[in-house]
Amino acid sequence: MLHRKGGSLVVVSAPSGAGKTTIIRAFLEKYKELSFFSVSLTTRQKREEEQNGIDYFFVSKEEFLRKVKDGELLEWEKVHNNYYGTPKKPIYENMAKGKICILDIDVKGAIKVKREIKEANLVFILHPSIEELINRLKKRGENKEEIDK
Fold first, then answer.
1. Could you give the CA distance from residue 135 to residue 141 in angstroms, rounded to a whole number?
2. Residue 89 and residue 74: Cα distance in Å, rounded?
3. Is residue 132 helix, strand or coil?
4. Edge-to-edge strands, sheet with 41-42
5. What is the pLDDT of residues 46-93, one digit of tens each?
6. How far apart, in whole angstroms, are the C-alpha atoms of residue 66 and residue 98?
7. Residue 9 falls in which region: left (phi positive, over 0), alpha (psi -120 to 50) or beta
8. Taking the model in full, what pTM does it have?
9. What is the percent of the chain with per-residue pLDDT over 70, rounded to a whole number?
10. How would residue 3 be classed by pLDDT, with cut points 50, 70 and 90?
11. DSSP assignment letter at 45
12. Helices (DSSP H) in the chain: which residue ranges?
């Protein structure tokens, strides 16, 4: 069993475009020596601007399902026909070092994490309005189908 004593876990959830990435980046910059950002796994296709190992670990469906079977994920979900999950080992290792571990995951995943790690802190960031959320997603270059989801 991996030891997780000493550190803390903060799970940040928000709708796409609400600003969670900006908030998380600011926190990590200010507290870089004390914090650890958990990079999620996904089976979705990498976007042009994304970097493997920084934005996500992009893996095949077969590799992802193997990790689920082997108990390597703290939580996982299937969202819009793609799998997303949080590797367990880096979380426990960094908590054991006394670090503040930050997860950027959806609400369903946050609830699963809270069941596993009772002391996890859950933060939900809400967008200012639906209109502003749509504007932010359009500025990002999201297509109508993605925005509707």
1. 10
2. 8
3. helix
4. 57-58, 41-42, 82-87, 73-79
5. 999 999 999 999 999 999 999 999 999 999 999 889 999 999 999 999
6. 30
7. beta
8. 0.80
9. 93
10. very low
11. P
12. 20-30, 61-69, 88-96, 107-116, 130-139, 144-148
Tokens of 7: 């550190």
Cβ–Cβ < 8 Å for 112, 95: no
Q: Which of 81, 86, 125, 98 is nearest to 5 (CA)?
A: 98
Phi-psi region of 101 (alpha: psi -120 to 50; beta: other; left: phi over 0): beta
> How many other C-beta atoms can be found within 10 angstroms of the C-beta atom of residue 2?
11
Answer yes or no: are the C-beta atoms of 102 and 36 closer than 8 Å.
yes
User: For residue range 32-48, what is the model confidence (pLDDT) as tens digits?
Assistant: 999 999 999 999 999 99
